[in-house]
Design goal:
single chain, 746 residues, alpha/beta, TIM Barrel, Rossmann fold, Immunoglobulin-like, 5-stranded parallel β-sheet, 30% helix, 18% strand, binds alpha-D-glucopyranose
Length: 746
Amino acid sequence: MNYKRFAPVLLVLSVLALYNSAKAQDLIDKKVDSVLSKMTLAEKVGQMNQYNGDWEATGPVTKAVGDKLGEIKQGRVGAVLNIMGSAHTKMFQDAAMQSRLKIPLLFGQDVIHGYRITFPIPLAEACSWDIDAIERAERIAATEASASGINWTFSPMVDIARDPRWGRVMEGAGEDPYLGSLIAAARVHGFQGRGLGNIDAIMACAKHFAAYGAAIGGRDYNSVDISMHTLWEVYLPPFKAAAEAGAATFMNSFNDLNGTPATGNSYLQREVLKKIWNFKGFVVSDWGSIGEMIPHGYAKDNYQAAEIAVKAGNDMDMESRSYIDNLEKLVNDGKVSVALLDESVRRILRKKFEMGLFDDPYRYINPAREKSMLNRPQSQEEAKSMAQKSIVLLKNNNQLLPLSKELKTVALIGPLGKAKKEQKGFWSLDIEPNEDIPSVFESLQKAAPKTQFVYQYGCNIDDQSHAGFAAAVEAAKKADVVVMAMGEAPDMTGEAKSKANIHLPGVQEELIKAIVETGKPVVVLLMAGRPMIFNWTADNANAILYTWWLGSQGGNAIADVIYGAYNPSGKLPITFPRTEGQIPIYYNHLNTGRPAASDKDVFYKSAYIDLPNSPRYAFGFGLSYTSFDYIDDGVFYSTTPIKDNETLKISFTLKNTGKYAGEETVQLYIRDLVSQPLRPVKELKDFKKVFLQPGESRQVTFTISRDMLYFYNDNLQYVTQPGDFQVMIGSASDDIRLKRTFELTN
Ligand code: GLC
């Protein structure tokens, strides 16, 4: 069909849409100004103040205040957090409706990986490389949360992380700016859906702005000291993507960045976010972070901290009480202008209007809707599908997996074999009953009813007791196959959960060794929120599945993978080190003047004398039950170099050469061979997920365009430089199958 004839109509429609949106914005701005004109200084300050509910604190609870509901009635509170469900949110909104101007409250919540239904932790979801599925997961979370009185989630966390010692690595999308940016935008679109004001949309909040994941030593809350070039090249891209996706809010971060706390950092909040990126939403501090500029040594007291923060562009104060206690005095002392407060209050009120809260403060508070929208079967199915895609197959010697359902006896050994709600991981909401969450043990039994499963805990997660070893070894000896459910405790990752030692905890590797030494085939499941170190297991177990924390459907998804109902397709979004001494280790590093061509090079080895240069598992790595060939027969590309806005096509044939249908995530990396400043040895620039039946082949084509080649030069200008580039196509960052070079001529 020739769509060209519709072009004029489409053009008119899009102009109309733009006109309507601008008109709608103008209308809202007029309403905001009307409310603002009626507000007293105290009420303006109130809108910039966010309190935690009286329970479920997610930070150090600041001094108890007498009567939060009373303060809300006085118009001293603009938002609350950790208040969930129709009943509780109604109680607090009722209080706001008794205030003089009846300005509705915003209800914020850490809906990080699901609300009533828990999805895999974000780092696990990133292993799916399935951008649409990630968006669908957040859409479900938003649908559930918005039916429970919540209209704002403190998510997505988009911090790039290269250090698995950092506990919050579990909350992001790993180490890569390109994958992290796609996922950031998908999460924002998922949460905000068809746009704020739709009943199932909640405001997203891109956090933690910025570079929180670069904390020195991987220690949470620690200082960050990086170049401006690294800030722009590595840590800012996912935030830019979130802003471009329309994130309604941003949250700044606890860390200082090159000597300035992010909360008081006007370069980040005013110059980058509000000026360069033209961000129209509002910025909320992280829990207490305004007041924390005092222990930082950046402010002498809350009075000065409040002045610094509001001038730096921090619009709302989460739980430090610096604003509510000091902003009026700062205005009356002439230190801060009312205009500065008005700018922040406008940003906050605009979002309340966009959310429809002025029209109906109770629109998200509806017990009937809450009952009907939570825990829907199709949502559970989506959670199971996401959990399946989040599992990464690290090893499968002699095709041990998938297991046969005809096996007579399987021993399930390990401290996490019967774990139920522990599978949800950190930042999960304790809403669903524990019994609703199937353990691995229960899921395996359901999947293979002919098999007898014998469970032994073997050892605890993190102590030195060997008391369970003997019984576990005995159970293994009597079994055909052993499945071991090992890993961290769910609260060993998350906020304030950084670890100096990220080996498999306790005596777990000793237990794995004792079981492997029985000579039985051993499948090891590793549950964690971070890359752990488990070298003996990696070298000696027959099969390893990295299952992270998979949420409500974790047990079922693991059983589906073990028995082949789902062929694992996950790819690592973060590098796994061989030991802590390698950290930070990431794939998109510079080449140095003495690159190690192999682990044997001595003087030409920018690494250690006592450890190979390579990681244990590389970014982008993940196996399948089948195998894929990248056939160079059809690699063709226009020999003419790229100039102006031309593009370059690169094609090849992918073939499923194994006996299982499966999905391969084909990765495209590019290297700028000569540039000033230096560019990484490779950067992920595109990927394609290709599902093939056994024996099936398909042509895969990538389009290389100039916009893949931009980078920040020494003056932080976003540029391209002519010259030669290498394009690499592969199954992992360290498993490149096809290479070509091309030239950019201008
Ligand atoms: C916490 C976290 C932040 C979270 C907030 C509210 O300290 O740093 O990510 O959204 O407080 O719970």
